[in-house]
Amino acid sequence: MSQSETDFTDVVARAIAQLDPGLEKRLGQDPQAHLDLVVLTRRAHDEVGELLRSAVVSARAAGLSWEAIGGSLRMSRQAAQQRFGRSADARAADDGRRLVGLTAFNEIETLNAWGRHGWHSVGYGPMFHDVVHTPVQWEHRRVVVGGRGARSLEAAGWERIGSVWFPWVYFRRALDAPAEPGEPDGDA
């Protein structure tokens, strides 16, 4: 195993161990601790699987081919497409809209423009956000998964939208101002 692989394994193991700070000490004394480790590791495995699916959908949205994605996963183009090609297609509520053509470069600006008119995100996927309308203005933010930014926003009262769109986490908050009439310039 190379040094970088060892370092990666150590980082992942430390992250799992931090979920139960007393686990390491209990492993040498309590057989139940080993089952607790199995549960924590399964949860980490499930979460990493979701992050991988999000990363693949994000790579596709960025224009990368199934061949490039398959190669990076050490599988064929066909295997990658079969495993990850059927991403869930989130739907807006009956009274909502889907904003399309959004990229990492324009989505927050677009969401905040719609937010001034009372629309806020309720879900997202590759190059879209589903939004619903309310009578108040909204503000949106995006931060990197696992960074301090997410904890800071949550502590300041921001509401997480959905789960994770690797490598991003999205937040919204209602503002104490009535929604502007009409809609922003541009198509939904």
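(ticket continues) Second input and output from the same batch:
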Amino acid sequence: MTNIPKLETPNGEKKVLLHSCCAPCSGDLMQRMTDSGIDFTIFFYNPNIHPLKEYEIRKNENKRFADKLGKEYVDGDYDVQDWFSRAKGMEFEPERGKRCTMCFDMRFERTALYAKENGFKLFTSSLGISRWKNMNQINECGLRAASHYDGVEYWTYNWRKHGGGARMYEIAKKEKFYKQEYCGCIYSLRDSNEWREKNGRPKIKICEEFYEG
């Protein structure tokens, strides 16, 4: 991790609540914050992930890396029924559409609430590092959630800068993180498998493929 600029947080905050969607996406953020001397806590709240077996392995992989770095890890609720209730009527929305906005809002609202209740003035998320995501959409959701709580700010840093996207894959391979093959929700799994079938590829096998050491 040489020649990578140290992170500078808004207002010089040294304590950050990091909403993590998974270990592969958050690995670079966690490493950069550690190297920059930022005291951060992982907040894993992702009730969108389906099925439960997939949720558990993504959660455990994230905790494994947090433990390795000696960082606090908070396990949020898996209130999947609430997520399904909110997604009703949006089952066939495209990736980056209204359903994704709902999903980000739900996760960031809970993250912002935890930040407010536990003395964090700043929170951010690993969601924006993926090239498959719309960073503006994610930042808008983060800022909206933060606006509901006085004294809480969402950090809109572009985690793809300075080679962050490439290091994300490097760290995932080095740490042998579980290689997830779809965004997470039941609808992204459905759409991914439909694409695979049309292109002559086998369907996704939940929790069976890992990075080779």
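Agent notes: Helices lie at 23-35, 52-69, 80-87, 98-117, 135-146, 164-175, 186-198. The beta strands are 15-19, 39-44, 73-75, 122-125, 153-154. Closing as not reproducible unless the customer responds.
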